[in-house]
From TrEMBL, chain A:
The keyword Lipid biosynthesis does not apply. GO terms for biological process: maltodextrin transmembrane transport. One of its GO terms (molecular function) is ABC-type maltose transporter activity. Belongs to the binding-protein-dependent transport system permease family. MalFG subfamily. This is Sugar ABC transporter permease.
Automatic annotation (TrEMBL), chain B:
It is found in: Cell membrane. One of its GO terms (cellular component) is maltose transport complex. Residues 287-505 form the ABC transmembrane type-1 domain. This is Maltose/maltodextrin transport system permease protein. It comes from Streptomyces finlayi. Keywords: Cell membrane, Membrane, Sugar transport, Transmembrane, Transmembrane helix, Transport. The lineage of its organism: Bacteria, Bacillati, Actinomycetota, Actinomycetes, Kitasatosporales. It comes from the Bacteria. The keyword 4Fe-4S does not apply. GO terms for biological process: maltodextrin transmembrane transport. InterPro entries: MalF_N, MetI-like, MetI-like_sf, TM_PBP2_N. Gene3D superfamilies: MalF N-terminal region-like, MetI-like. The chain crosses the membrane at residues 21-43, 49-67, 76-94, 287-309, 321-343, 372-394, 415-438, 484-506.
Amino acid sequence: MATPIPPAVPHPTGPSPSRRRGGVAHRVGWWRHAVALLCAVFALIPIVFVVSAAFNPRGTLGSTTLWPSGAGLENFRKLFTSTDYGRWFGNSLLISAAAGALSMFASACGAYAFSRFRFRGRRAGMTGLLLVQMFPQFLAVVAIYLMFTWITARYPGIGFNTSWALILLYMGGALGANTWLMKGFFDTVPKSLDESAKVDGASHAQVFFTIMLPLVSPVLAVTGLLSFIGTMNEFLLANIFLTDPEAKTLAVGLYGMIQEGNRDANFGLFCAGSLLMAIPIVALFLYLQRFIVSGLTSGAVKG
Amino acid sequence: MTVPPRKPLGNPLGTPLGSAGVLAKALLLGLALALAIWGAFPLVEHRDWLALAVLVAATVLIFWGYLSPRRIPAKYLLPGTVFLIAFQVLPILYTVSTAFTNFGDGHRGSKESAIHSIEEASVSPVPGTPDYRLNLAVPQGSSPADGPLVLVLTDPATGKERAARADTGTVTDLPSRATLTVLTDPQAARRGAELAALRIADGPGHIRTEGLERAYVGAPARSYDASSDTLRDATTGTVWKADGTTGTFVTDDGERISSGWRVGVGLGNFADVLTNPTISRYFGQTLLWNIAFAVLTVLITFVLGLFVALSLHHPRMRGRWFYRALLILPYAMPAFAMLMVWADMFNKDFGLINRLFGLDVNWLGEPWTARAAVLLVQLWMGYPYMFLVATGALQAVPDEVKEAARVDGAGRWTILRKVTLPLVLVALFPLLIASFAFNFNNFNAIYLTTAGGPFPPDSPMAGATDLLITYTYRLAFGGQGAQYGLAAAISLFIFVIVAVISLVSFRRARAMEEVNG
């Protein structure tokens, strides 16, 4: 994916796009449709190819054409009978959901502290966070590998070939950026809201859980779901961590499927697997659209 | 919004917690304690006292933070901080410290373990000793699973038997096997690891075993002499001197033993990256392409995305929603899978591109076509995102501004060039920088399509489409012997480059906003 950043689309403001007063509204040029169609074709070619390969009964790369020559569910059937695809799917969903939810919660807590309290070390903490989140976690891949070698020797339950290892790792890696992002959102919630609640006797925990969290929940959802998608696609660390077929995630499992001379033979299988994997992502995308419009007000996406 | 019922202003110091709150707190603290205790056992077992001290300190810190009604910020910061330190800060610090060492294959452990492995590797049978047949046994009455091992050694020439006992460490003649229980093959196989680690002294050497059926008396040809800090080979007479600056044993003519140890090399790795001709050539070339890749990716995706957004940005155009849905599809497909599908579409023999256009181009086999192919894939993956954000930015340009320009007599083209585009650019500049920083390290985009290739015939280390991150990955994990120290040094270079570019650009972006806004 070209960018990990949430698609911070300032939502369409108001219902009245340039209705011109008095002037003669110029016609919709045919070129607009031509450009849109050309780009749509460019966007669709690889996707049609994947669909065609997934339903291609022969299942090889060499026999796959852009337009399917035949259709069968052979690849999908094989996916669930001859590979651990179902397990990989479960692992991926579990890891992505757990890492997303945990890091959202921990970042929301941190962001609340940075946004609402003044304490010693606040500035230093925020600067440190900014620096740390600029260091991409996978640059430290060697250190992470050695660290988890140490952990695996002591706690096999959260070591290599477990989902927990990746959950902890992804969660830790997302914390810095998410905390910064969310502090920005908390800052846009008026302070008078939580102050009046405090006057009414609410504790800091009540303010956090019953006032702040519900107010930023659309943003939480967008950020969380996007991190979910990013985690589903993460390959580098997962590929090092997971070697046991049963522990693999979709990315690692599907990658292994077309390695070592199986690229041609298993291509249909691979495409069928990718297509099924797209379903939760596309579903989340459709779900996200509503939140992007309602949640990311133009003020909140700045910075 | 419903207003919560006003509570009496109670205790002004501590904030009153409901009974549910107290219960939750007790439960969570109990869970933390249980986790800490669970974590302590393996540390005690491995005698990791330092790690145990850290664990105890962290637990105390957690209780200190949550048991007091004050220290409210700490309550919210602790969970994130613990994980941030464990899985982000520690790896970074470790990477930084590794960058100053020669850590890698052949330089993994301490000097003692290097000497040990060199001596072990030079063990050979002592001349004049027999090549024994081996049987494993335990004293009669002991369990075959964990009784003390007895190695029954049969001299094939004489048929005489000797017994090497693990518990006493002695070798004695064995007139009869009556006092022993000989293990069956499966029983013996289960104790193979134990057997391999067993060293029983016998005459000039130790009893060594080969598999479960052979044994001999072996002695190391190479031995370490601490007083002169040298390693000597008794059969050839070669002497290697320990070189503490490189962590290797070297002869006077410069011959090295491949097993060395880990030493600090100061700025050696960084100097290597910049000056060592075999490394710096690749580094420079890779860095150039890396920058070009990131800049071009942002540029082409942005230009196409903006162009499409402009085309669709017309209030009365039909089918906008339909087009939009189609155009966003590439963004929704699983990226890593689509990268590999693209790689197959560029396949020379049965790839879709060659078949579709009737070409016979070895796309991923030639440096420049491979680079073009990688950029085309990036364009496909990236422009839907740029289209999305550009559409948003276009819609956010206020109509009044355009109206004012029109009143001043500006034509459509002029308004677009002088009013709309600058406003859109200012709004999207931070996103473009973020996109650049991401693509600078876009591991998947290269590793899953070309894997860095094509490689020049003379060097398999750096390919034409390699980014620094894929090059680093190969240095550390490639088949050619891991060079963790060098890889860590390059990681730091990457970090500094990305951080500097991001910081400078963001500062510029802020300045721009101030000017325009």
